[in-house]
Amino acid sequence: MNVKDLKAVEILDRITDGFFALDKEWNFTYINKRAQELLFRSRKNLINKNIWKEFPEAVGLAFYDNYHLSASQQIPVTFDAYFPPLLTWFSVSTYPSEEGLTVFFQDVTMKKEQELKNEQHYQSLFAQHPDAVFSFDLEGRYLSVNKGMEELLGYTKEEFLTLSYTPLVKEDSLEETNHYFQKAVNGMTQHYETKAIHKDGHVIDVSVTNIPIVINKEIVGVYGIAKDITMQKQSEEMLIRSEKLSVVGELSASIAHEIRNPLTSLKGFLQLMQSSSENVSIYLEIMSDEISRIEEITGELLLLAKPQAHDFKKESIERITEHAMVLLHSQALINNVSLIPNFKKTSLVYCVANQIKQVIINIVKNAIESMPNGGDISIILAENEDKVQIIVKDQGCGIPKRFLSEVGLPFYTTKEKGTGLGMMTTLRIVETHGGTVHINSEEGKGTTVEIQLPIKGPA
Ligand code: ADP
Ligand code: MG
Protein backbone atom coordinates (compact mmCIF):
# COMPACT_ATOMS: atom_id res chain seq x y z
CA MET A 1 0.00 0.00 0.00
CA ASN A 2 1.35 3.41 -0.91
CA VAL A 3 0.41 5.51 2.12
CA LYS A 4 1.60 8.70 0.47
CA ASP A 5 -1.28 8.44 -1.93
CA LEU A 6 -3.62 11.26 -0.84
CA LYS A 7 -6.84 9.37 -1.38
CA ALA A 8 -5.60 6.53 0.75
CA VAL A 9 -4.54 8.94 3.48
CA GLU A 10 -8.00 10.43 3.61
CA ILE A 11 -9.57 7.02 3.94
CA LEU A 12 -7.13 5.97 6.62
CA ASP A 13 -7.87 9.14 8.56
CA ARG A 14 -11.54 8.39 8.52
CA ILE A 15 -11.43 4.75 9.68
CA THR A 16 -12.27 4.29 13.32
CA ASP A 17 -9.31 2.01 14.02
CA GLY A 18 -5.99 3.48 14.93
CA PHE A 19 -3.52 2.85 12.17
CA PHE A 20 0.17 3.41 11.67
CA ALA A 21 2.89 2.16 9.37
CA LEU A 22 6.48 1.38 10.29
CA ASP A 23 9.50 0.97 8.01
CA LYS A 24 12.02 -1.81 8.32
CA GLU A 25 13.97 0.22 10.92
CA TRP A 26 10.83 0.50 13.10
CA ASN A 27 10.37 4.19 12.27
CA PHE A 28 6.89 5.64 11.89
CA THR A 29 6.10 6.46 8.25
CA TYR A 30 2.41 7.18 8.76
CA ILE A 31 -0.06 7.68 11.63
CA ASN A 32 -3.77 8.26 11.15
CA LYS A 33 -5.91 10.61 13.18
CA ARG A 34 -7.42 7.99 15.43
CA ALA A 35 -3.97 6.61 16.26
CA GLN A 36 -2.86 10.08 17.37
CA GLU A 37 -5.85 10.25 19.69
CA LEU A 38 -5.39 6.75 21.04
CA LEU A 39 -1.65 7.21 21.67
CA PHE A 40 -1.93 10.85 22.81
CA ARG A 41 0.83 11.80 20.41
CA SER A 42 0.78 14.06 17.34
CA ARG A 43 1.75 12.97 13.87
CA LYS A 44 4.58 15.48 13.69
CA ASN A 45 5.90 14.28 16.98
CA LEU A 46 6.25 10.68 15.81
CA ILE A 47 6.91 10.66 12.07
CA ASN A 48 10.35 9.21 11.22
CA LYS A 49 10.92 8.35 14.88
CA ASN A 50 11.70 4.86 16.13
CA ILE A 51 8.69 3.27 17.83
CA TRP A 52 10.77 1.59 20.56
CA LYS A 53 12.48 4.86 21.44
CA GLU A 54 9.16 6.74 21.57
CA PHE A 55 7.37 3.98 23.47
CA PRO A 56 10.14 2.35 25.50
CA GLU A 57 7.53 0.84 27.89
CA ALA A 58 6.32 -1.38 25.04
CA VAL A 59 9.69 -3.14 24.81
CA GLY A 60 9.31 -6.45 26.62
CA LEU A 61 5.52 -6.38 26.34
CA ALA A 62 3.38 -8.34 23.89
CA PHE A 63 3.62 -5.46 21.38
CA TYR A 64 7.37 -5.84 20.96
CA ASP A 65 7.31 -9.64 20.65
CA ASN A 66 4.36 -9.76 18.25
CA TYR A 67 5.59 -6.99 15.94
CA HIS A 68 8.94 -8.73 15.64
CA LEU A 69 7.20 -12.06 15.06
CA SER A 70 4.98 -10.57 12.35
CA ALA A 71 7.94 -8.87 10.61
CA SER A 72 10.41 -11.74 10.81
CA GLN A 73 7.92 -14.50 9.85
CA GLN A 74 6.04 -12.27 7.38
CA ILE A 75 2.70 -13.26 8.87
CA PRO A 76 -0.23 -11.21 10.16
CA VAL A 77 -0.62 -11.36 13.93
CA THR A 78 -3.63 -10.45 16.07
CA PHE A 79 -3.49 -10.05 19.84
CA ASP A 80 -4.89 -8.20 22.87
CA ALA A 81 -2.46 -6.49 25.24
CA TYR A 82 -2.48 -3.98 28.05
CA PHE A 83 -0.38 -0.85 27.78
CA PRO A 84 0.24 0.42 31.34
CA PRO A 85 1.39 4.00 30.58
CA LEU A 86 -1.98 4.73 28.93
CA LEU A 87 -4.01 2.43 31.23
CA THR A 88 -5.44 0.99 28.05
CA TRP A 89 -6.18 -2.45 26.59
CA PHE A 90 -5.46 -2.57 22.86
CA SER A 91 -6.67 -5.11 20.36
CA VAL A 92 -3.96 -5.13 17.68
CA SER A 93 -3.57 -6.59 14.18
CA THR A 94 -0.29 -6.36 12.31
CA TYR A 95 0.30 -6.90 8.58
CA PRO A 96 3.81 -7.27 7.17
CA SER A 97 4.55 -5.60 3.82
CA GLU A 98 7.48 -4.86 1.54
CA GLU A 99 8.08 -1.53 3.26
CA GLY A 100 7.76 -2.76 6.81
CA LEU A 101 4.82 -3.32 9.09
CA THR A 102 1.31 -1.82 9.18
CA VAL A 103 -0.59 -1.88 12.42
CA PHE A 104 -4.31 -1.51 13.12
CA PHE A 105 -5.46 -1.15 16.71
CA GLN A 106 -8.50 -0.42 18.84
CA ASP A 107 -9.09 0.61 22.42
CA VAL A 108 -10.89 -2.38 23.99
CA THR A 109 -10.47 -1.35 27.63
CA MET A 110 -14.22 -1.18 28.31
CA LYS A 111 -14.84 -4.60 26.82
CA LYS A 112 -11.86 -6.09 28.65
CA GLU A 113 -12.98 -4.65 31.96
CA GLN A 114 -16.40 -6.16 31.43
CA GLU A 115 -14.81 -9.48 30.61
CA LEU A 116 -12.66 -9.31 33.71
CA LYS A 117 -15.73 -8.46 35.75
CA ASN A 118 -17.53 -11.47 34.32
CA GLU A 119 -14.54 -13.59 35.07
CA GLN A 120 -14.58 -12.32 38.64
CA HIS A 121 -18.27 -13.25 38.81
CA TYR A 122 -17.36 -16.78 37.85
CA GLN A 123 -14.34 -16.73 40.08
CA SER A 124 -16.50 -15.88 43.07
CA LEU A 125 -18.99 -18.60 42.12
CA PHE A 126 -16.02 -20.97 42.23
CA ALA A 127 -14.44 -19.58 45.37
CA GLN A 128 -17.58 -19.01 47.40
CA HIS A 129 -19.47 -22.17 46.39
CA PRO A 130 -20.38 -24.13 49.53
CA ASP A 131 -19.75 -27.43 47.73
CA ALA A 132 -16.28 -28.59 46.84
CA VAL A 133 -15.43 -27.19 43.38
CA PHE A 134 -12.23 -28.03 41.54
CA SER A 135 -10.70 -28.46 38.11
CA PHE A 136 -8.40 -31.05 36.56
CA ASP A 137 -6.18 -31.27 33.54
CA LEU A 138 -6.90 -34.13 31.13
CA GLU A 139 -4.74 -36.50 33.22
CA GLY A 140 -6.76 -35.85 36.38
CA ARG A 141 -4.23 -33.58 38.11
CA TYR A 142 -5.72 -30.78 40.20
CA LEU A 143 -5.44 -27.32 38.61
CA SER A 144 -7.56 -25.44 41.14
CA VAL A 145 -9.62 -26.14 44.23
CA ASN A 146 -11.91 -23.96 46.33
CA LYS A 147 -12.27 -23.68 50.10
CA GLY A 148 -15.07 -26.26 50.08
CA MET A 149 -12.70 -28.82 48.58
CA GLU A 150 -10.02 -28.08 51.20
CA GLU A 151 -12.63 -28.67 53.89
CA LEU A 152 -14.02 -31.83 52.27
CA LEU A 153 -10.74 -33.75 52.02
CA GLY A 154 -8.49 -31.91 54.50
CA TYR A 155 -5.67 -31.04 52.10
CA THR A 156 -4.51 -27.46 51.48
CA LYS A 157 -4.76 -25.89 48.06
CA GLU A 158 -0.97 -26.15 47.63
CA GLU A 159 -1.09 -29.86 48.47
CA PHE A 160 -3.89 -30.47 45.97
CA LEU A 161 -1.92 -28.81 43.17
CA THR A 162 0.75 -31.52 43.52
CA LEU A 163 -1.84 -34.34 43.41
CA SER A 164 -4.13 -36.17 40.99
CA TYR A 165 -7.43 -37.62 42.16
CA THR A 166 -6.12 -41.21 41.99
CA PRO A 167 -4.68 -41.50 45.52
CA LEU A 168 -7.72 -39.70 46.96
CA VAL A 169 -10.27 -42.27 45.76
CA LYS A 170 -10.83 -45.47 47.75
CA GLU A 171 -9.15 -48.33 45.91
CA ASP A 172 -12.28 -50.38 45.20
CA SER A 173 -14.04 -47.33 43.72
CA LEU A 174 -11.12 -46.22 41.56
CA GLU A 175 -11.88 -48.20 38.42
CA GLU A 176 -15.42 -46.86 38.28
CA THR A 177 -14.26 -43.31 39.00
CA ASN A 178 -11.64 -43.54 36.21
CA HIS A 179 -14.39 -44.66 33.87
CA TYR A 180 -16.57 -41.63 34.66
CA PHE A 181 -13.63 -39.21 34.51
CA GLN A 182 -12.67 -40.56 31.09
CA LYS A 183 -16.22 -40.01 29.85
CA ALA A 184 -16.03 -36.39 31.02
CA VAL A 185 -12.70 -36.04 29.19
CA ASN A 186 -14.57 -37.26 26.11
CA GLY A 187 -17.11 -34.47 26.49
CA MET A 188 -19.95 -36.02 28.49
CA THR A 189 -20.97 -34.57 31.83
CA GLN A 190 -21.09 -37.29 34.48
CA HIS A 191 -22.91 -37.64 37.80
CA TYR A 192 -21.85 -40.45 40.07
CA GLU A 193 -21.17 -41.54 43.63
CA THR A 194 -17.80 -42.65 44.87
CA LYS A 195 -15.74 -43.04 48.02
CA ALA A 196 -12.99 -40.53 48.79
CA ILE A 197 -10.28 -40.73 51.41
CA HIS A 198 -9.83 -37.75 53.74
CA LYS A 199 -6.25 -36.69 54.54
CA ASP A 200 -6.70 -38.16 58.04
CA GLY A 201 -7.63 -41.55 56.50
CA HIS A 202 -11.39 -41.76 57.02
CA VAL A 203 -13.60 -42.60 54.05
CA ILE A 204 -16.25 -40.17 52.81
CA ASP A 205 -19.15 -40.97 50.50
CA VAL A 206 -19.28 -38.27 47.86
CA SER A 207 -21.62 -37.44 45.04
CA VAL A 208 -19.59 -36.01 42.16
CA THR A 209 -20.37 -34.12 38.97
CA ASN A 210 -17.66 -33.98 36.29
CA ILE A 211 -18.07 -31.41 33.52
CA PRO A 212 -15.75 -31.07 30.55
CA ILE A 213 -13.98 -27.69 30.31
CA VAL A 214 -14.35 -26.53 26.72
CA ILE A 215 -12.24 -23.66 25.41
CA ASN A 216 -12.42 -22.76 21.71
CA LYS A 217 -14.33 -26.00 21.03
CA GLU A 218 -11.57 -28.07 22.56
CA ILE A 219 -11.74 -30.02 25.81
CA VAL A 220 -8.83 -28.87 27.93
CA GLY A 221 -9.80 -30.25 31.32
CA VAL A 222 -12.58 -31.29 33.65
CA TYR A 223 -14.47 -29.37 36.31
CA GLY A 224 -15.60 -31.22 39.40
CA ILE A 225 -18.25 -30.50 42.00
CA ALA A 226 -18.43 -32.81 45.00
CA LYS A 227 -20.79 -33.11 47.95
CA ASP A 228 -20.37 -35.11 51.13
CA ILE A 229 -23.23 -37.63 51.26
CA THR A 230 -21.86 -39.84 54.04
CA MET A 231 -24.75 -39.05 56.38
CA GLN A 232 -27.33 -39.59 53.65
CA LYS A 233 -25.73 -42.93 52.77
CA GLN A 234 -25.72 -44.03 56.37
CA SER A 235 -29.40 -43.27 56.82
CA GLU A 236 -30.18 -45.08 53.53
CA GLU A 237 -28.32 -48.13 54.78
CA MET A 238 -30.15 -47.97 58.08
CA LEU A 239 -33.45 -47.88 56.24
CA ILE A 240 -32.55 -50.94 54.16
CA ARG A 241 -31.40 -52.74 57.29
CA SER A 242 -34.60 -51.92 59.14
CA GLU A 243 -36.65 -53.08 56.15
CA LYS A 244 -34.77 -56.35 56.19
CA LEU A 245 -35.36 -56.63 59.91
CA SER A 246 -39.07 -56.15 59.46
CA VAL A 247 -39.17 -58.92 56.84
CA VAL A 248 -37.25 -61.18 59.20
CA GLY A 249 -39.64 -60.15 61.97
CA GLU A 250 -42.69 -61.05 59.92
CA LEU A 251 -41.20 -64.33 58.82
CA SER A 252 -40.17 -65.36 62.31
CA ALA A 253 -43.65 -64.53 63.61
CA SER A 254 -45.20 -66.93 61.08
CA ILE A 255 -42.55 -69.56 61.74
CA ALA A 256 -43.08 -69.34 65.50
CA HIS A 257 -46.80 -69.73 64.90
CA GLU A 258 -46.31 -72.76 62.65
CA ILE A 259 -43.98 -74.48 65.06
CA ARG A 260 -46.02 -73.66 68.17
CA ASN A 261 -49.04 -75.58 66.87
CA PRO A 262 -47.34 -78.96 66.75
CA LEU A 263 -45.48 -78.16 69.98
CA THR A 264 -48.77 -77.44 71.72
CA SER A 265 -50.20 -80.72 70.58
CA LEU A 266 -47.01 -82.56 71.61
CA LYS A 267 -47.26 -81.06 75.08
CA GLY A 268 -50.95 -82.01 75.32
CA PHE A 269 -50.26 -85.61 74.40
CA LEU A 270 -47.40 -85.83 76.89
CA GLN A 271 -49.75 -84.62 79.64
CA LEU A 272 -52.38 -87.11 78.53
CA MET A 273 -49.82 -89.93 78.60
CA GLN A 274 -48.65 -88.95 82.09
CA SER A 275 -52.14 -89.10 83.51
CA SER A 276 -53.41 -92.19 81.71
CA SER A 277 -52.62 -95.81 82.20
CA GLU A 278 -54.02 -97.02 78.87
CA ASN A 279 -52.10 -97.91 75.77
CA VAL A 280 -50.23 -94.79 74.58
CA SER A 281 -48.96 -96.07 71.23
CA ILE A 282 -51.68 -94.18 69.34
CA TYR A 283 -50.45 -90.91 70.88
CA LEU A 284 -46.88 -91.81 70.02
CA GLU A 285 -47.80 -92.03 66.36
CA ILE A 286 -49.39 -88.56 66.33
CA MET A 287 -46.48 -87.14 68.31
CA SER A 288 -44.01 -88.57 65.85
CA ASP A 289 -46.01 -86.98 63.03
CA GLU A 290 -45.90 -83.60 64.71
CA ILE A 291 -42.17 -83.86 65.32
CA SER A 292 -41.67 -84.69 61.63
CA ARG A 293 -43.58 -81.57 60.79
CA ILE A 294 -41.33 -79.39 62.90
CA GLU A 295 -38.39 -81.12 61.27
CA GLU A 296 -39.81 -80.43 57.83
CA ILE A 297 -40.44 -76.75 58.54
CA THR A 298 -37.00 -76.12 60.01
CA GLY A 299 -35.43 -78.14 57.20
CA GLU A 300 -37.08 -75.98 54.53
CA LEU A 301 -36.09 -72.79 56.30
CA LEU A 302 -32.46 -73.83 56.54
CA LEU A 303 -32.39 -73.96 52.76
CA LEU A 304 -33.35 -70.31 52.64
CA ALA A 305 -29.89 -69.26 53.77
CA LYS A 306 -28.09 -67.71 50.83
CA PRO A 307 -25.35 -70.01 49.46
CA GLN A 308 -21.78 -68.75 49.48
CA ALA A 309 -20.02 -68.16 46.16
CA HIS A 310 -17.71 -71.13 46.83
CA ASP A 311 -20.72 -73.49 47.09
CA PHE A 312 -21.32 -73.06 43.35
CA LYS A 313 -19.78 -75.79 41.17
CA LYS A 314 -20.25 -77.13 37.65
CA GLU A 315 -22.80 -79.90 38.08
CA SER A 316 -24.74 -82.32 35.89
CA ILE A 317 -28.45 -81.54 36.19
CA GLU A 318 -29.17 -85.04 34.88
CA ARG A 319 -27.30 -86.62 37.80
CA ILE A 320 -29.00 -84.30 40.31
CA THR A 321 -32.43 -85.12 38.88
CA GLU A 322 -31.74 -88.86 39.01
CA HIS A 323 -30.77 -88.50 42.69
CA ALA A 324 -33.98 -86.65 43.44
CA MET A 325 -36.01 -89.33 41.62
CA VAL A 326 -34.44 -92.09 43.74
CA LEU A 327 -35.55 -90.23 46.87
CA LEU A 328 -39.09 -89.75 45.49
CA HIS A 329 -39.45 -93.30 44.22
CA SER A 330 -41.26 -94.80 47.20
CA GLN A 331 -43.67 -91.86 47.58
CA ALA A 332 -44.57 -92.16 43.89
CA LEU A 333 -45.09 -95.90 44.26
CA ILE A 334 -47.43 -95.51 47.23
CA ASN A 335 -49.50 -92.97 45.25
CA ASN A 336 -49.60 -95.07 42.13
CA VAL A 337 -47.69 -92.41 40.22
CA SER A 338 -45.12 -93.12 37.49
CA LEU A 339 -42.16 -90.75 37.10
CA ILE A 340 -41.28 -90.64 33.40
CA PRO A 341 -37.86 -89.10 32.60
CA ASN A 342 -37.16 -87.50 29.23
CA PHE A 343 -33.61 -86.17 29.40
CA LYS A 344 -32.05 -84.37 26.46
CA LYS A 345 -28.30 -83.84 26.63
CA THR A 346 -27.53 -80.78 28.77
CA SER A 347 -24.40 -78.84 29.67
CA LEU A 348 -22.98 -78.75 33.17
CA VAL A 349 -24.61 -75.92 35.13
CA TYR A 350 -22.85 -73.69 37.62
CA CYS A 351 -25.03 -74.30 40.68
CA VAL A 352 -25.32 -75.62 44.24
CA ALA A 353 -26.24 -79.29 43.70
CA ASN A 354 -28.03 -79.81 47.03
CA GLN A 355 -30.24 -76.81 46.47
CA ILE A 356 -31.21 -77.77 42.92
CA LYS A 357 -31.96 -81.28 44.17
CA GLN A 358 -34.27 -79.78 46.81
CA VAL A 359 -36.01 -77.70 44.11
CA ILE A 360 -36.71 -80.83 42.04
CA ILE A 361 -37.92 -82.73 45.10
CA ASN A 362 -40.28 -79.87 46.07
CA ILE A 363 -41.82 -79.64 42.62
CA VAL A 364 -42.15 -83.36 41.96
CA LYS A 365 -43.58 -83.84 45.47
CA ASN A 366 -46.25 -81.23 44.74
CA ALA A 367 -46.97 -82.99 41.45
CA ILE A 368 -47.37 -86.36 43.21
CA GLU A 369 -49.59 -84.78 45.87
CA SER A 370 -51.79 -83.24 43.18
CA MET A 371 -52.69 -86.72 41.87
CA PRO A 372 -54.35 -88.64 44.72
CA ASN A 373 -55.59 -91.22 42.23
CA GLY A 374 -52.26 -91.73 40.54
CA GLY A 375 -51.07 -90.90 37.02
CA ASP A 376 -47.95 -89.91 35.09
CA ILE A 377 -45.43 -87.19 35.78
CA SER A 378 -42.98 -86.26 33.00
CA ILE A 379 -39.67 -84.90 34.09
CA ILE A 380 -38.00 -83.22 31.11
CA LEU A 381 -34.47 -81.84 30.85
CA ALA A 382 -33.57 -79.69 27.86
CA GLU A 383 -31.22 -76.89 26.85
CA ASN A 384 -31.96 -73.62 25.14
CA GLU A 385 -29.08 -71.28 24.23
CA ASP A 386 -27.37 -70.51 27.54
CA LYS A 387 -30.02 -72.04 29.82
CA VAL A 388 -30.91 -75.51 31.03
CA GLN A 389 -34.62 -76.23 31.51
CA ILE A 390 -36.16 -78.53 34.08
CA ILE A 391 -39.84 -79.18 33.28
CA VAL A 392 -42.20 -81.15 35.52
CA LYS A 393 -45.63 -81.97 34.05
CA ASP A 394 -48.40 -83.58 36.09
CA GLN A 395 -51.99 -84.66 35.41
CA GLY A 396 -53.22 -83.51 38.80
CA CYS A 397 -55.87 -81.20 40.23
CA GLY A 398 -54.29 -78.01 38.86
CA ILE A 399 -54.24 -74.59 40.52
CA PRO A 400 -57.24 -72.21 40.17
CA LYS A 401 -56.16 -68.98 38.41
CA ARG A 402 -57.09 -66.82 41.37
CA PHE A 403 -54.66 -68.71 43.62
CA LEU A 404 -51.72 -68.74 41.22
CA SER A 405 -50.23 -65.58 42.70
CA GLU A 406 -50.44 -67.07 46.20
CA VAL A 407 -48.26 -70.06 45.34
CA GLY A 408 -44.81 -69.38 46.73
CA LEU A 409 -45.92 -67.06 49.52
CA PRO A 410 -44.63 -68.34 52.86
CA PHE A 411 -47.08 -70.78 54.48
CA TYR A 412 -49.58 -70.69 51.63
CA THR A 413 -50.90 -74.24 51.41
CA THR A 414 -54.13 -75.95 50.44
CA LYS A 415 -53.05 -79.21 52.02
CA GLU A 416 -54.08 -80.46 55.44
CA LYS A 417 -50.51 -81.37 56.31
CA GLY A 418 -48.74 -78.93 53.99
CA THR A 419 -46.06 -76.52 55.17
CA GLY A 420 -46.59 -73.94 52.46
CA LEU A 421 -42.82 -73.50 52.31
CA GLY A 422 -41.87 -75.73 49.37
CA MET A 423 -42.58 -73.28 46.57
CA MET A 424 -41.18 -70.33 48.51
CA THR A 425 -37.81 -72.05 48.96
CA THR A 426 -37.96 -73.16 45.33
CA LEU A 427 -38.45 -69.59 44.10
CA ARG A 428 -35.72 -68.34 46.40
CA ILE A 429 -33.18 -70.95 45.34
CA VAL A 430 -33.84 -70.47 41.63
CA GLU A 431 -33.56 -66.72 42.10
CA THR A 432 -30.14 -66.99 43.79
CA HIS A 433 -29.09 -69.09 40.79
CA GLY A 434 -30.12 -66.31 38.44
CA GLY A 435 -32.92 -68.45 36.97
CA THR A 436 -36.69 -68.22 36.57
CA VAL A 437 -39.74 -70.33 37.51
CA HIS A 438 -42.91 -70.46 35.37
CA ILE A 439 -46.08 -72.20 36.45
CA ASN A 440 -48.73 -73.13 33.89
CA SER A 441 -51.81 -74.72 35.31
CA GLU A 442 -55.31 -75.70 34.29
CA GLU A 443 -57.80 -76.62 36.97
CA GLY A 444 -58.68 -80.32 36.81
CA LYS A 445 -56.15 -80.99 34.01
CA GLY A 446 -52.73 -80.57 35.47
CA THR A 447 -49.79 -78.32 36.13
CA THR A 448 -46.49 -77.68 34.37
CA VAL A 449 -43.64 -76.11 36.28
CA GLU A 450 -40.74 -74.90 34.15
CA ILE A 451 -37.42 -73.86 35.61
CA GLN A 452 -34.70 -72.14 33.60
CA LEU A 453 -31.20 -72.08 35.00
CA PRO A 454 -28.42 -70.07 33.37
CA ILE A 455 -25.53 -72.43 32.58
CA LYS A 456 -23.02 -69.82 33.73
CA GLY A 457 -24.77 -69.45 37.11
CA PRO A 458 -25.88 -66.16 38.68
CA ALA A 459 -24.55 -63.08 36.93
P1 ADP B 1 -47.21 -77.34 50.28
O1 ADP B 1 -46.84 -78.36 49.25
O2 ADP B 1 -46.63 -77.64 51.61
O3 ADP B 1 -48.65 -77.04 50.31
P2 ADP B 1 -45.92 -75.57 48.47
O4 ADP B 1 -45.31 -74.26 48.67
O5 ADP B 1 -45.06 -76.66 47.93
O6 ADP B 1 -46.53 -75.97 49.87
O7 ADP B 1 -47.17 -75.41 47.55
C1 ADP B 1 -48.12 -74.43 47.85
C2 ADP B 1 -49.44 -74.71 47.24
O8 ADP B 1 -49.35 -74.55 45.84
C3 ADP B 1 -49.93 -76.11 47.44
O9 ADP B 1 -50.58 -76.27 48.68
C4 ADP B 1 -50.89 -76.27 46.25
O10 ADP B 1 -52.14 -75.67 46.53
C5 ADP B 1 -50.26 -75.45 45.18
N1 ADP B 1 -49.48 -76.30 44.25
C6 ADP B 1 -48.15 -76.33 44.10
N2 ADP B 1 -47.78 -77.20 43.12
C7 ADP B 1 -48.91 -77.73 42.64
C8 ADP B 1 -49.23 -78.71 41.61
N3 ADP B 1 -48.26 -79.33 40.90
N4 ADP B 1 -50.51 -78.99 41.40
C9 ADP B 1 -51.48 -78.41 42.11
N5 ADP B 1 -51.26 -77.48 43.08
C10 ADP B 1 -50.00 -77.15 43.34
MG1 MG C 1 -44.97 -78.78 48.55
TrEMBL record:
InterPro entries per UniProt: HATPase_C_sf, HATPase_dom, His_kinase_dom, HisK_dim/P_dom, HisK_dim/P_sf, PAS, PAS-assoc_C, PAS-like_dom_sf
RNA-binding recorded as keyword: no
Superkingdom per UniProt: Bacteria
Residue span(s) of domain PAS: 4-55, 118-188
Catalytic activity reported: ATP + protein L-histidine = ADP + protein N-phospho-L-histidine
Domain Histidine kinase residues, every copy: 254-457
Gene Ontology MF terms: ATP binding; phosphorelay sensor kinase activity
Organism: Bacillus weihaiensis
UniProt protein name: histidine kinase
Keywords: ATP-binding, Kinase, Nucleotide-binding, Phosphoprotein, Sporulation, Transferase, Two-component regulatory system
